[in-house]
């Protein structure tokens, strides 16, 4: 694909370790506050992650338990609103952190003038404060599930980033952690690097150009360094 012009990152499970000890805890706290006995353990939440979007995840859970579809959607919307508030507090308290190696990769991309963007199905209400707190003002374009109603594996979020940022798809790569994310990126005409986590290591990531065990994986580091404009190609 030649030298990189831009990299578009997913957030949940990709840039940050946010699922198991972030979102899952926030969902459980929302259940408890609402007087519900539902609790999602680590394994249960891993299975539920196949459903993109927190409100959809909640609605599917309640419907599976026998709630009428309308009631399930209403309850899911109300609980997700409170869950988002709890998640924001977890972020402010520093409970959600970057995955190892992410900071170094972002530094290398910045040093070479490679644009970095975000395409996520998460709500802007928590995505924006998380990016600001953990990474600062690094990302030029941020598209979230608040602006794009078609969630991954739909390519809508990536297509919107490409439109807003004016990136060349041929010189842009997406970074994802899950099968749904890889499908979304490839559907938008992008090459995708997959950096899986404990929840997604068994996902079908075969459509990615590289599948790596996180951002410190030597194969991932080498892949990016070979495609940076100057520094890693021995140029002045």
Describe the structure.
The chain folds into two domains: 6-17 and 98-233, HAD superfamily/HAD-like (Rossmann fold); 19-92, DNA polymerase, domain 1 (Orthogonal Bundle). Strands 3-2-1-4-5-6 form a six-stranded parallel β-sheet, sandwiched between helices. It is built from nine helices and six strands, in the order βαααααβαβαβαββα. The longest helix has 24 residues, at 69-92. It has 236 residues and is of the alpha/beta class.
Describe the secondary structure blueprint for this structure.
Layout: E1 6-9, H1 19-33, H2 42-48, H3 54-64, H4 69-92, H5 102-111, E2 115-119, H6 124-135, E3 142-143, H7 156-165, E4 172-176, H8 179-187, E5 191-195, E6 210-212, H9 218-225
């Amino acid at each position: 694909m030649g030298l990189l012009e831009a990299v578009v990152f997913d957030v949940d499970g990709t840039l940050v370790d946010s699922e198991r000890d972030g979102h899952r805890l926030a969902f459980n706290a929302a259940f408890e506050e609402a007087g519900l006995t539902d609790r999602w353990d680590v394994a249960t939440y891993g299975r539920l992650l196949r459903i993109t979007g927190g409100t959809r995840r909640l609605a599917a859970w309640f419907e599976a338990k026998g709630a009428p579809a309308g009631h399930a959607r209403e309850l899911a919307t109300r609980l997700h609103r409170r869950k988002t508030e709890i998640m924001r507090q977890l972020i402010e308290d520093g409970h959600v952190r970057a995955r190892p190696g992410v900071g170094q990769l972002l530094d290398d991309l910045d040093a070479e003038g490679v644009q970095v963007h975000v395409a996520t199905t998460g709500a802007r209400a928590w995505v924006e404060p998380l990016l600001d707190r953990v990474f600062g003002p690094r990302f030029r374009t941020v598209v979230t599930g608040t602006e794009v109603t078609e969630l991954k594996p739909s390519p809508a979020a990536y297509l919107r980033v490409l439109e807003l940022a004016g990136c060349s798809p041929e010189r842009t790569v997406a970074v994802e952690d899950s099968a749904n994310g890889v499908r979304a990126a490839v559907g938008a005409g992008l090459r995708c690097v997959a950096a899986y986590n404990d929840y997604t290591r068994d996902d079908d990531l075969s459509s990615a150009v590289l599948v790596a065990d996180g951002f410190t994986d030597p194969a991932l580091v080498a892949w990016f360094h070979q495609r940076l404009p100057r520094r890693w190609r021995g140029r002045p």
